[in-house]
Specification:
Strand content: 35-45%
Number of domains: 2
Distance between the termini: 59 Å
Shape: elongated
Largest sheet: 5 strands, mixed
Radius of gyration: 24 Å
Number of strands: 22
Oligomer: single chain
Helix content: under 10%
Structural class: mainly beta
Number of helices: 2
């Protein structure tokens, strides 16, 4: 009996000495800018991989295991599968000691739009080492903002999607250190979220001025700081046409529609874009791909939805 215990103890000590080395062969880290997100907004995680094996590693998908993946589950342990299992990752040679960082937008890849908490970890599998390496899990919460404006409008025939409709929602979302303004544009017929853009800070006592121009495109004037206002012009497919900062003159600035249908800012003077308002936040571009609505067919990608072909797509 003593001999068996001694053998078992020796084996456990040997394994204990080996495991830290095995864990260190590939170091995987993941970071998020915040833990609270609005439903459907781009959820960007930054994944860093460092090769500590002492040798070059060829990272490539196998028949049944992708080399780069995520494990996402609700806080009560319900796994969240990807929208599609058909994605692939290009092979990558990671040299000894080399570190690689990639931002990944999880919103078009995983159905994480239901309100509640989620646990996320990134996993790198290496077939030559015969094992997977994961980051520490991180928790996020998906919530909905307070609706400030909602309207359904038609798309002019001259624009992409002409003849269809768009639902416009402007929302405020309270984060720990500020209140942020969002716009969400939905194609209700196709069941596609065209965009969920974070437009930046809005002062707690201010209400944004919202106006549609002659083409039903959206103009928003928000108070981002004392006497500083930000004007955003956004198309019906989520494209950002213009963002310009204004300095208040005497009265509170406002939006006004001209007889030709154009919308302009009155009561303020345009200032250089390198201001505190512009430094506060950079709006996501249309490259933050549209996201299917709950209940939409996720097996077939809508024609106007250009999902990334692999997790390393920038």
């Amino acid at each position: 009996m003593a001999r068996i215990l001694k053998t078992t103890t020796t084996l456990l000590l040997t394994l204990a000495a080996f495991l830290p080395t095995a864990r260190a062969q590939l170091q995987v880290d993941m970071s998020l800018k915040r833990s609270l997100y609005l439903a459907y907004e781009p959820l960007i995680v930054n994944v860093t991989i460092q090769n500590l094996s002492g040798n070059s590693l060829n990272l490539r998908d196998t028949d049944d295991i992708p080399w780069f993946s995520f494990q996402i589950e609700t806080l009560d342990g319900r796994p969240i599968p990807p929208r599609s299992v058909k994605h692939s990752n290009p092979s990558l040679l990671l040299k000894a000691g080399e570190k690689l960082s990639r931002p990944v937008n999880l919103t078009p890849l995983y159905p994480i739009s239901e309100y509640g908490g989620y646990r996320i970890r990134a996993t790198i599998h290496n077939s030559s080492l015969g094992r997977s390496f994961s980051s520490e899990p991180m928790n996020i919460e998906i919530t909905e903002g307070r609706s400030l404006f909602e309207k359904t409008v038609g798309v002019p025939a001259s624009q992409p999607g002409g003849g269809g409709t768009r639902q416009i929602n402007v929302l405020s979302h309270r984060l720990p250190n500020s209140t942020q303004l969002y716009i969400r544009i939905t194609d209700p017929k196709a069941g596609v979220i065209k965009c969920t853009h974070r437009l930046g800070r809005i002062v707690s006592y201010g209400t944004p001025d919202i106006l549609l121009d002659g083409s039903n495109e959206i103009h928003i004037l928000q108070n981002v700081a004392p006497k500083a206002f930000l004007h955003s012009h956004i198309g019906l497919n989520g494209e950002i046409h213009e963002r310009k900062t204004y300095q208040q003159n005497t009265k509170v600035p406002a939006l006004m529609q001209r007889p030709d249908g154009q919308v302009v800012v009155i009561g303020a003077q345009a200032i250089d874009t390198a201001t505190i308002a512009e430094r506060e936040h950079t709006t996501p571009t249309i490259s933050d791909r549209p996201v299917p609505l709950p209940g939409a067919d996720t097996d077939q990608t809508p024609k106007d939805e250009n999902r990334p072909k692999n997790l390393l797509s920038r």
